[in-house]
Design a protein that fits this description.
The chain is built from 10 helices and 14 strands. With 357 residues, it is α/β, with parallel strands linked by helices. The strands form 2 sheets. It has an 8-stranded mixed β-sheet with strand order 8-9-10-7-11-12-13-14, covered by helices on one side. The protein has a 6-stranded parallel β-sheet with strand order 3-2-1-4-5-6, sandwiched between helices.
Length: 357
């Protein structure tokens, strides 16, 4: 009997996690830990305990507070940047300076100027750089994009997105003990529900249709929570070919109510996705036939999270298997559009208004 040679270990990509908070801990780390082609080599956070605790989940990963040292860790190839928005530029610059590929959380930065700097730095370094719009990789959304591309909806007329949550002034992420709600700080977040959630929807429209929104207007709301940033927003716009788009976002939707819904309407049918927008696997996708109005469930991979699919997509692009389909310059154009769509006159805070019940 001849010995069977051991199968070669799959080639692995070396990741550095920068910012060991909620999204890294609860969503990206599980995706990396489950991926046979990924290896976390370092975790860096300005809080040493946070870095240590997350690094302890990965064999051989080093923990630290020094960005430059972390990005020089032997084997490091990609930096996943998950600090609060205002710190993205500095962290991405350090990663690109060390010639690492970059996967930076959304929004690109707290200000448009910082985002433009961040994109310029990545372009100058010549590294693969991407926004971590995980929802573009959700298997339900990929299935929806395939149906649109195959013409199953006929002429697409509109996309309607509802994506909200409940985020009171004293909110902190699950598992967090800092009590620091930077999401309602205009300087560190750059805005409220609109800045936090609308970028996902705007990116998703492009990923679903293969064309982006090119003109838009936004209304902001300070309706329920009395903080300095908006707690609700609605953007209405149009793609270059005339698909009408509405994207409603909120920090003021009670979470027992429906708050994650996506519809793509066409002359031959309508797609309805519920509970697919977010960080988790699953949800539901239906295609309603325009001739009969009858819904049919569309099957998709309900076991893969959008974060797991995103890790795979980045690694394939890094390995040269496929080109990266969403250049950072395009994501910057979408951020410019979001900024330009804002009302010229600031929306008053709740405490300055007579709010009806
Ligand atoms: N894609 C998604 O679905 C999704 C979900 C949640 C958050 N996010 C984005 O991820 C980012 C992080 O959000 P979060 O909820 O995890 O925040 P968080 O507050 O839970 O964690 C942020 C971490 O960054 C660390 N940090 C702060 N400044 C730093 C710096 N200069 N250098 C190194 N570390 C620093 C903090 O100590 C903290 O551990 C934000 O940009 C947010 O918009 C994306």
């Amino acid at each position: 009997m001849t010995d069977v040679p051991p199968s070669p270990a799959p080639a692995s990509t070396g990741w550095v996690i920068a910012g060991a908070g909620w999204v890294a801990r609860d969503h990206m780390a599980p995706a990396l830990a489950a991926s046979p082609t990924s290896r976390v080599v370092a975790v860096v956070d300005r809080d040493p305990a946070a870095a240590r605790e997350l690094a302890a989940r990965f064999d051989g990963a080093v923990a630290g507070t020094d960005l430059a040292a972390a990005f020089r860790t032997p084997g490091a190839q990609v930096a996943y940047v998950a600090t609060p928005n205002h710190a993205h530029r500095e962290v991405v610059a350090a990663a690109a300076g060390a010639r690492l590929a970059v996967l930076c959380e959304k929004p690109l930065a707290a200000t448009l100027a910082d985002a433009a700097d961040l994109v310029a730095v990545c372009e100058a370094a010549g590294v693969l750089a991407a926004t971590a719009f995980d929802q573009r990789w959700h298997p339900a959304h990929r299935a929806a994009a395939d149906l649109v591309a195959a013409g199953r909806l006929g002429t697409v007329t509109s996309v309607r997105i509802v994506y909200g949550c409940w985020l009171p002034p004293d909110w902190s992420p699950p598992g967090s003990t800092t009590g620091d709600n930077w999401r309602v700080d205009p300087v560190r977040a750059g805005g409220g529900a609109y800045v936090d959630l609308a970028p996902h929807g705007l990116d998703l429209v492009g990923a679903l249709l293969g064309e982006d929104v090119t003109s838009a207007t936004t209304h902001l709301q300070h309706r329920v929570h009395d903080y300095a940033v908006d707690d609700g927003s609605v953007l209405v716009g149009s793609t270059g070919s005339g698909v009408l788009v509405s994207i409603a976002n909120s920090f003021n939707t009670v979470e027992t109510l429906p708050r994650r819904r996506l519809e793509v309407v066409g002359t031959a049918g309508q797609l309805v996705a519920t509970d697919t927008m977010g960080q988790t696997a699953g949800g539901r996708l239906e295609l309603l036939d325009a001739a009969t109005g009858t819904p049919a469930e569309i099957a998709f991979d309900t076991g893969t999270t959008p974060f797991a699919a995103q890790v795979r997509a980045v690694e394939r692009a890094l390995a040269g298997e496929v080109p990266w389909p969403f250049p950072l310059a395009r994501d910057l154009r979408l951020m410019q559009l979001l900024t330009d769509a804002l009302p010229a006159v600031p929306t008053p805070r709740r405490s300055d208004l007579e709010v009806s019940p």
